[in-house]
Fold these 4 entries.
Entry 1:
Amino acid sequence: MRGTVGVRKETKDNTQRRAPLSPANVRRLVSDHGLKVVVEPWKNRVFPDATYADAGASISHDLSGCNVILGVKEIYAPHLTPGSAYCFFSHTVKGQDYNMPMLREILDRRVTLFDYELVRDDRGKRLVFFGPFAGYAGMIDTLWALGKRLAWEGIPNPFSSVRYATGYDRLERARAALRVIGDEISSKGLPGRLVPFITGFTGYGHVSKSAQELYDLLPSEPVAPCDLASFIARGKFSDRKVYKCEFHKPDLYADTEGGSFNPEKFASRPDLFRGRFADYLPHLTVVVNGIYWEPRFPRLISRDDVRRLFSGAGEGSAGKGGTAPRLRVIGDITCDIGGSVEVTVRETNADNPVFVYDPRTGRVTDGWKGRGPVVMAVDKLPTELPHEASESFGNALERFVPGLARVDFSGPAASLDLPDEFRRALIAHAGELTPEFSYLHDNLLRGGSASKDSRDS
């Protein structure tokens, strides 16, 4: 029914708590735009059903009468209603093999699919995303993992007081906790075994910037990648500071044909470049990875890199009985399985957020105990800060909802009266892939690739 919007419950994972619209968004859509909003009841959602009802929504298990249905994560059969229009993060545009069966169902059921990741303005800037909250939660979880690891190693440290992100009911509580830790570092200093404490950040976007925003609540001082080795050699560092090294593409990749880094050449021929992050890895205590990655790009951290780094370490924590590498934790916010960080061999979630990768055997052990780096690879980080994440996302999405609610989806894709930003995000309609995404036919036939999309979802 045109003029009716559905908000579905999330069925992919029981740790999911986000919503595409907040009660405040619903109130405005109902009162200012005359829309009918139907919310599917769901006990895990950060906003109780009653708050949506108070905002003017109908609470119902039946969304079949909605003109468009809004969700967050992937929707698998039997939860797809034939002929309906859906908006969610589909993780299909790179031909991801694990979601090709879902895409086949979407086509078979003649479902209309919009992907939030593709909602962009004329300049290609993304407009509806969770990215900053992936960075915030990822930074909190990385520091939490660091505190656990160091405590297991027998190193008293201020990070032991960091809670897991879900332990903070609001982001501001986490900020306040990090400020306290920052004051402790400034006044009491860090244990000598951690000095200099250096965290490497990769990525240019919302994910990396928001992670750095929280890190900078500590007494942080920048160090350029090109100065890292000499910085260590000079020894002019402080135990009352943490250091931040931000890596950009020229720092991460070297042209195998010689010459300086050329971004156009890298974009067109990444096979002519090698990764050089391993050169910096021995100097880092923590890595926070937020880069966009595809299989055609060189890896950031390979299994061989980690094996070489830990080759002098003996049994135990970070190398008792041998030379202990500085590296304790890899916070892989990007979470490409076997991708930019090859030792991210599986994704994790809030119920079991970290594992230790053993560089000798390639095996992983849940938790933070054991030989090798701790890897944090939580797949749905923004849901760990669900209140602010949902409010921010809903505020970005809200302006497009009235237009979507009134679209007549009975016609062919080319004739749909869509907002331009959502026309770019239309992947499938009436049993067919749209022309821009027709390349996915090959992936449907052969099963897809293994890379995930960005951590905005």
Entry 2:
Amino acid sequence: MFSNQSQVALWHDANLIHYSPPPPFHPACAFPEYPFQSSCFLSDHNPVYEAVRNLFKLMRLDASHQETPGWNPLQEWIKPGDIVVIKPNLVRHVHGLGLSLDSLITHPSVIRVVMDYVYIALQGHGTLIVGDAPLQTTDFDILVRNSGLGALADFYRHYAHLDFHLTDFRREHSVKDQRGRIVQRFDLAGDPRGYRAVNLGSSSLLKPCIDQYKNFRVTNYDPEEMMTHHNPMINEYLISQSVLDADVVINLPKLKTHRKGGITAALKNLVGINGSKDWLTHHTCGSVVDGGDEYLHPSLRKRWLTLLNERLDVCRNPFWREIYYLCKRTIAVTRHLIPYPDVYFEGSWYGNDTLWRMVLDLNRILLYADRQGTIQPTSQRKLIILVDALLAGEGEGPLEPTPKPCGLLVAGTHPVFVDDVCARVMGFDPSRIPLINQGLDVFGLRDKLQGLSLCSNDKNWSTINQLMQHHLGFVPSAGWAGQIERTV
């Protein structure tokens, strides 16, 4: 069994770098346990399905029943009647570089396999929710249609005897014009189960820097709203009630580099359990000297650019919007004559000391908040993690990643250990990534790191030290270059 949090599994096939089957991503053969036995529900070719299945076999899940109709690999976590939430990374409906979605989002062919094994474990009794809160400008309908996730959801609604939902956890959708300015905001239905404000108060990891609360920011949102949720009195997040109601959460991230966090995998993927983006602290305004982490050195021009961007985010008057935009463009042009003192913007660099605090707060909530949003001393729900790194993303992730073929799946039950392994496989030093390094202390795992156990079908990845020697050499985001790559 695979219940030990200090275990991480890696399935590697360097040739498996394409998501080939059409939606709804049926397997290529009727495996003994396959819940949809009709020959109509098979594909000509689907190596992704078999890879995830092989990963579960590698993990020795329900080992005594493998290759039999009774194989139920997720029964250790999921029981009939449970509420199960699958949380993929559905960050955006378009790739920032105009490429396919394959290196941007958790591919629905991976989601399909996990759904099938959840279906087997629930045995027709329970609720399955696939949900995320993508970027505010994401068109969810286009995303699910173009990715194939919509066809997958339709298949489950028609053929699975199960209470199934595909849910956009956001409460708001924004529209930008061709200049990148937000021009419209629309209310969304959001989570049908509602939301709960979970207040961590002084236990929030933002507490040590709460004197800077007036400078907490998330791009394209009103800072005044941010201050109502993070200040010396409260530190709260708007959590989807579907997540809080869940007996089991299956975290399905896409492995990518990240401009503000270094990498995005299991830990960062939980940003999508929060329903309103203006409750999420992504960086702190100003230079390091000023107590911020937006950029390194003081810069009056950068400060003015930040102020103008914030004006553009909240102003509805077309005349003043144009004035603010022209002022912003004028200041930006000056960099060609007088370079800025550093190249960092919006907290997109290794000095970001805000994002990791917010992300680890959300991970603590997922593990320890009960259904009423009260933090308890013991875990309140089960967690399974499976990272889609068949085709990962490097460079300017998470929105403009360069595709990185890896043929890799990573699984575990604690997000810090999973991310530690992912960072090493990428060729990064996890001790230099605050999200991971601080996470070891927040969850009391540092002393257990050396006892981390790996199981892999790749003989080069059997121990932590081997991961250091046989990494995949990801290119970091520009703001992290030269800071996190392995030097030995």
Entry 3:
Amino acid sequence: MQLTDDKLMVNNNRFTKSRKIKMQNDLKILTRIGQDLRIMIVESDKNLSHSAQEILFPFFDEIVVTHTAEETLALYKSNSYAIVYIDLILSDMEGIELITKLQNQDKYQKFIIFMDESHTHMILKLYELGIIFFIFKPFTTKYFLHVTYDVIRILLPDQYVEEQVSEFHKKLADITEENKLQCNLLMQQSKLIQTGEMLSMIAHQWRQPLSVITSIIATTRTKMALDIYKRTGDPYLAIEEDLGNSFGRIEEAADFLSKTVNDFRNFYRPTNTPNTFCVAELINSVCRMVIPEKHYINIDVELKIDTSIVITNFENELKQVLINIINNAKDAFVEKNIEKPKLRIMLQKKEDSVFLNITDNAEGIPLSIMEKIFLPYFSTKSEKNGTGIGLHMAKTIIERHLGGTINVRNDELYGGANFCIEIMHKINICEDHI
């Protein structure tokens, strides 16, 4: 019998120790979670509300105490509370009526009710309101915390979910910011690559008009040195006609140089807002920039464009896309040794959209890689000529910045790739634009 009593005592000790450990763990959880929660105590008895506040003080950073229903409702409108401790007897309103008013503002509000034996007849009504937690007077600290922790255990999953959602949004914001930085770096890299290409284009574009001007000056100087004008019947008339013709040709060459300078200058001018522009003029500007003179590479350019189309969008970014696509066509002409390179640019409008097609005869894109050409760092060119970011940036600009779409297919009749761009007449500005 003594052995049995000893076993019972050991078991009781183990049970007591286990309960103490559990209680300690519960209090740790209560301390951790309570720091982020705001609670309210509604109690007309100031001594009782003070006792409750002292018990909860170590676990909650913000404890609001009210003594009337009017005061409670006023504070409840501007704040949210994880738990509301409430007495059923208040000086200006019955507790059940106040609970109903608070539930009308937040149907998920958690309540703990202060009760004594005289209130037991109200339990059924409280159950109907969804209230299942009660603290009976007089209460002990241990009992008070036990009931509070039971409510916290219900709030804990919600709190955990909120923490996870908050963490998710934080990671998502970091990822979004990182993607924006990467996109900006790609755009800068694309711009730098195009800068090198543009310098080469400027050299080729300027060579012909500068050669014309030099040739005119040299010819005129030679004629004057050989006294050719004096040998004519009317030297002054001959000089006047020759110089008039020369000045006209020089003006044409200078005008071409001026337009080329403006094209390149406007291309590199940063813009953060859309502007209204004529798409046909933009296409002509791009052609002046990137389509070389006949003596360099003989490209037959066919323009079928509606010159009346005016849109509001990001002009320079659309120009960058066209430069990328046309440069790819030029590279394909050279690498595939196309004897008679042709480029067709078509512009038309349908309802609220503008369609821009750029088609070449450079034998098209193999079907096996058709779905990959817009991927970053994927290139069909040789390593020295291709970086694989041009078409990726074109797709990014069209879809994220210009609010449009871009796709490609092979045009069997023309014998090459056909890039189709669709954009709206007027773009709606969004946060996506960088």
Entry 4:
Amino acid sequence: MTHGALALAADAIAQLDHCNKCGFCLPACPTYVETGLEVHSPRGRLSLIEAAWRGELAVGQPLADALSLCVGCRACEAACPSGVQYSIAMQAAQADLVRRRRRWVVSRAAVPPLLALVRHRRALKAAVRLGQAAKRIRLLPVPLAPLAAMLPPTAEVPSVLVPIPADPAGPAVHFVDTCVMDALFPTANQHARALLSAGGAHLQAAHGPEGCCGALEAHTGHPEKAREMARAHVVRWERDLPPDTWIVAHAGGCAAMMADYGRLLADDPRWAGPARRWAGQVRDWAAACMALPHALAFRGTGARVALQNSCHAVNALGQGAAPAELLARVAGDQLVTLPGQDRCCGAGGVYNLNQPAMAQQILRRHLDEAAAADVDVWVATNPGCALHLGQGVRATAGRAAVVHLATYLHERWQADPPAPPDSARRPG
């Protein structure tokens, strides 16, 4: 047992004071839905954190176990009528547990190497290639088998796309590749850039190699490392980009992290102001596409298409409507709205590595919904979700093809939309 009350900063304590324990968060929480236990609900976890902060509950393994089962989807924040920012209190408690060297998560052997790899793009890409090769020949170290199991069967090969001339009158956009997208879905990143340009964005480049946004560090109890990563991004943006540039990412968790830089660096006397300004410029990729000056046209193939939305785009950014609106523009395909479209799938960054049983239990509901709806294409808007869904579909011999949103849309994009029929044309 660890002695001493849980240490929390003022902003975390404010969230505890703000929560009135009404229970509106309970049905929104994926782990509470699965277990029905109060300690696995946001209200229950906040009560435990408060008790540990007041010294009424020992800071030990039972507390760590209760907190570790949280996926971090932030659906409770969207459901809360009082606007409690649960994640602030949760991350503060996690960080103190890590400082005390009590593993607030069940730290599986695959997780520390992954956290190290995301800080080094080339190493991450090399590890992905090695993992896929080892997977094909069934030669995997036991500790790394869960990580390799999530990898797609083959690596994406970046394609050669026809350059789209920049629209100098369009909004300035800096597209952030993000670590996992760059390593596992490089083609989707290319497609995302191409569609931004086609919609009228004037793409901007920040100089030098792009680092990790810090999301995984923040979510695993390492806020100082997350602040270091956040500061590196803000410095580059401030130095290299026009001040009105949109910061766009095709991974909802990364976009939500960057949108939180203002709070994360609030105590930094030099970078608090720039961080707050740039955080206000962050957009999820789909939301950015919907706001571009030129509407994109798409033609489908008659497929039944479903969406798995990003929890953070829905709950943290409030931009979850955009992916479905884009998919609805695809003429010829049938958009099927699954009941769990906007619910957490159980991926949760490294959650499905640390808590595989619960992650699979949450995923099962989604797999059943997709199978019942006879889905042909399952579109994901977040790389972790795409990996998690893909693994689930393969394990259950499902028939849905899991693809990233930008890739699905780019395959159906019509660079030169057909002219309207004669009856719809205006007289010249």
